[in-house]
Amino acid sequence: MGNSDSIGVTPVTQDAFTYTATRSIFTMSTPEGVGFNVTFLSPIFPNDFKRHSQTATYVEVDVWSQDGSSHDVQVYSDISAEWLSPDPSVVAEWDYGTSDDGKVATHNLRRQTQLLFTEDAPGNGAVAQWGNWLWSTGNDDNMSWQSGADVDVRGQFSSNGKLTDQGDTEFRAIGDRWPVLAFSHDLGDVSSAGASALFTIGLYQHDAIQFEGKDGIVSLPAYWTNFWDSPEAAASEFYQDYAAAADDMAKADQKIHDDAVAASGEDYAAIVTLAYRQAYGGVQLVGTPDEMYVFLKEISSDGNVGTVDVAFPAFPVFLYDNPALVKGLLDPLFENQEAGWYPNKWAEHDIGANYPNATGHNDGGDERMSVEEPGNMLIMMLAYAQRSGDTAYLGRHYEILKQWNQYLIDAALAPVGDDGLSTDDFAGAHDNQTDLALKGIIGIRAMAEIANLTDHADDASSFRSTAESYIAQWQTLGINAAADPPHATLFYGDADSHGLLYNLYADKLLGLGLVPQSVYDMQSDFYRTLGDKYGVPLDSRWSETKLDWEVWSAAYSSKETQDYFFSRIRTWIGETPSNAPLTDLYDVADGDFAHQDDRTITFAYRPVVGGVFALMVL
User: Fold this and answer.
1) Going by C-beta distance under 8 Å and a sequence separation of 6 or more, which residues neighbour residue 400?
2) CA angle 442-444-450, nearest 5°?
3) What is the pTM of this model?
């Protein structure tokens, strides 16, 4: 895979591609009659934090004869110093070694000058500027290795079918004779029975996050450091865990697929399985077993740390897998604000403008979503407590939850002015957004339940009464009952406007029964009048939509409406011309990235796609 022009070989043919929740499998063939699979396996262990703590991936190459003859096969693979930075002037260092037991060979690639807690510019991919990339394979008599200039190393393999077992000791800039770190495996005569080679790639950072918590600004270790004393030891164990990991992930793949089919069918399963790895790729475990945090990165839209309105759409996948992960996401947000670092009365938008610096917003100057974020926090808190039974967690944070709830009581029914910005900030702020108001009202009702679970009976009664009063008024303000068919409006008083009422999902998720069933039925019927080829628009202003909010809206709708959504989304997955992993913001007419006027909005890689698990936690 990759560009073969520089070494003068014939490209292979890609015959097929399949994916599961944890695997991507490319099936290839050569003109000589050899077939092979390249399988990328990214194991996810939501209930085994030790194994999950390794940010590493397996690459397995399975080779077989397609024509009944035996073929002499060698497998080559390398990584280049370009993994370190898009800047070709950055100086790279590397070395080679084997594990203590001699079973695993590893190239260790790193920047000569480590820039702790620094990423390259987002436009360059926001590449981490510290840490070690470990590229490993099995160490046996049929393996050879080499490091050096790309043309030399690749040329050596192309000419000789093996490498020199020699390392280049001249550390240099990435763009200076383009150093690569390579392995080859001689598989010998391969018949239809097949043979294989396995590689692993992982990023290992000792210090992972800079965090302003109860003790001020501190450095938090990557979670893997609790279990291994070096990156090499961790990478060796990861490599040797492959058989067990592959078996565990096959079971996980099957369970996720089967659960999704049971929830709403094969189209829905295709969406869920595609989103799974991307959702987990946006979070990192740090800290210690006694105090573990889960830090989330808002990717591509910006580089914020722990963005609440990114965690909110993402959190169904973590609720599905292990509610402790939801707590891990919430913990740093609470710690930063309860320590007194954040001055505003509402919940903060994020805990750091640039990952991995979770150093807060002590000036209160974060992006203001003063109805959005308190609503999100209250809903996620109650969802966590309901699934985990951990009502003590609610009690520990009751005072700040009550503070945020009071802000909602004051502002949520009619969010105007500075309170009028929702998570869909690419669309701009607007007074009296119907769905934003609904989120705030559901947040108040969630707080009533939190008060009840923590023995604050008077608060529970008061908050419930307020939420019920507000929802009655909201139905008058935000629903065009005279339309045919009737529907919720996008903005109060704008009778012809409409949008995905995705926040209604929270009422269903929490089992609050706040919103009448008639509203659910009304929206479910209405959505089936709006669809284009690839989905249902986010709102009446343009033809773009949000993948996560489509699924949330489908989740509370009828099976007929779910099929209406999911068949279109599955078609989009197969036909979209967008060239980045699973965008969550796209045009329902042409399937490409969203475009407003002359502006293209390229959302990609974002963990919000964890929201497609919405049906699987109802």
Assistant:
1) 334, 337, 338
2) 105
3) 0.97
